[in-house]
What does this fold into?
Amino acid sequence: MPERIVVPFGPQHPVLPEPIHIDLVLEDELVVDAVPSIGYIHRGLEQLVQKREYPEYVYVAERICGICSFMHALCYCQGIEHIMGIEVPDRSRYLRTIWAEYSRLHSHLLWLGLFADGMGFENLFMRSWQLRERVLDVSEDTTGGRIIQSTCKVGGVRRDIGQEMLDKMHRGLDIFEEECRDLGNVFLNDETVKYRLQGLGVISKEEAYALGSAGPTLRGSGVASDQRETGYAAYGELGYKAVVETAGDCYARCAVRVRELYSSIDIIRRAIEEIPEGPIDVKVRGTPDGEYFSRVEQPRGEVVHYLLGNGTKHLARARIRTPTLANVPALVKMLPGAQLADVPIVVLSIDPCISCTER
Amino acid sequence: MSDKKEQIIREIAPGDLLREVEALNAGGYRIVQIGCTGMESVYEINYTFDKDYDLVNLRLTVEPGAEIPSISGIYWGAFVYENELHDLFGITVTDINIDFKGTFYRTAEKYPLSITRSGGDDSCQNV
It folds into this structure.
């Protein structure tokens, strides 16, 4: 029996822009066990609800993550609105949906670039990020911010998008979709990519479900679970069906994200076509008194904001469960059996967001 | 239209936890999270499960210093949340399948969200 050694992976590693540490137990170069640890940059943002008034906390929620910033704001605002019984105007729900899907596009394109970089496919990395810039341009044109947008607020949204801009965005989607399909074609059909990813980091449908996995990690194993199917924001009117792959390997998780690019483009297109005229916010009066588990489908999976109001302007508690934390058990199950050289790809395949996890 | 899916919150005694969780597991529920809320003098711990987008929450109320049993024997992935309960709140969870013994969250302060430490910017009383 080969001697077992422990190799530390992270917290600083070329494929990880954020710190997570995994102790890899190896026999030669085969991983036989993996022990993760986090908490290097834990910020305690949940505690700030006791120091920031509930409308102000939206700004804190947006800063939980630099990638799914808008989604955190959306999840928080929807939770507060539920507790306070606020019905936001229809137009604001469509605007929220449009910005949420642009956020998903830029997150998935960011991840595809990092994933390609992790595989050593440099020009695919550059092409992915080139397309991402186009998404960020739209965010900047419509909100003033590339990542932190500050458009979502309790009671609606802060900014509208004019018809001229909506028409421009709609026209831009046609060529953008064509380019995304070209990009996706490489990820899904290139022999080198398939050879590198297929059969790697496999997690079965039953395991993914039992472990409480979320997002593409769950759907890549064949479980059709996507919070957008519950109909929050404008997804109820627009309709949504979860993108599912069944192989449960790194290729399947990649394929889910590629196909979600297309579904996001489709949602944005239909939202622009169907967005109703009208106000974008309502006046908010009073303070939240009650509790709610607000859930939204982030690019990495379902995020949960548990919000507890006590009738004052400060919440008593916010507890945020991010999808990366939910996917850590799946990662621990995926790594044994992988070669040391494949560990970065397997880790990247869950799209770890440590910033979210260290809220 | 907002999310109109059902959310059930059920208060249970610590002694009933494993039986209730077993029943949810047998019913095909997926674990979503375990979250802790520090109240005035007690902790509220929510065990959240999902099936077809409906949420069921089992709520325990425990005193500081109390021990609660691990559900990781039923839901293997619960170890992340249970180690979090220990590392951030100082709650003792017994028989976790992967017990990091305080090293899962490598925070500078021990038990930073514990209710037995003073709030604000004061230094941690548990260190």
The interface with chain A takes residues 1-5, 7, 9, 30-33, 35-39, 46, 48, 53, 55, 57, 75-81, 84, 87, 98, 100, 103-107, 112-113, 119 of chain B (CB under 8 Å). Helices of chain B lie at 17-26, 79-89.
